[in-house]
Model the fold of this input.
Amino acid sequence: MILRKIAIFPNSEYDREYAYTGQAVRVLSENGILSILSSAAKPFFQDLSLSVQFCDTADGMMDACDAILVLGGDGTMIDYSVRAAEKDKPAIGINLGHLGFLMALERTEIEKLALLAQDDFTVESRMLLDAQILLGGELLHSQRILNDIVAASGVRSKIAEFSLSCTPGGVLDYRADGIIVATPTGSTAYSFSAGGPIIDPTASVFSVMPVCPHSLLSRAVLLAPENALTLSGRTRDAFTDIHVTMDGKNARMIPKEAEIHIRKSEYTAKIIKIGATRFYDILETKLNKK
Done:
């Protein structure tokens, strides 16, 4: 894969006045790669020696590039990786946040972007999920997921009852504070904190993990990607709804009668990795980080 044009998406919370973005643009320019930036960044990039192009919209930036570069934390990387997947573009991340499991480089390693011009990188394919929330056949929300879907009791410290229908697998019933449906990428996030397994990120499998279960079915269940999942919740309190988050955002309360339909997406996220560092090396380093 030859990369000649890279669209850069910085998180302004971590990169005020485009300080880290400026470093990235300089390295890319020195190595013959054009940087595509938002028009809002134009006042900060007046150096004519830099190879820069400006675009008014994020979609326009993605359409014009060979790959995208994200500067921020894992949350920012998740958002843009999903959007890039829908345009069949790979994504690379520079970690300006805390853990940075998805990121190829740390903020002190920006010079290594030069390896992109030498074709010295690999691209990992990551499974995505498509989720829809339906109530009586009406679509309430839909979202493409890289990490996980979390359904929990709408009342703190109250156990809920969940039913997970797997086609063609059957039905699993849970009494728990919540249920996490995670991709392999999401297995190192909330699911891991709840006691779930760590799954190789390039695998294709669902992980279903109960949160604080009050039943013998307290372990994670791994399901083949051919399964179509339907998650519904009911509580003993007739007035309690279910709280749902997808990839850590778009939190909402849904009626307990609603259903969450989950299936493997036709799209695949493509994550660029630089150098010889492997997933389990990163895992060891990040999880033992003080």
About this structure: The first strand starts at residue 5 and ends at 10. DSSP finds five helices and 18 strands in the chain. The first helix runs from residue 19 to 30. The CA atoms of residues 76 and 155 lie 29 Å apart.
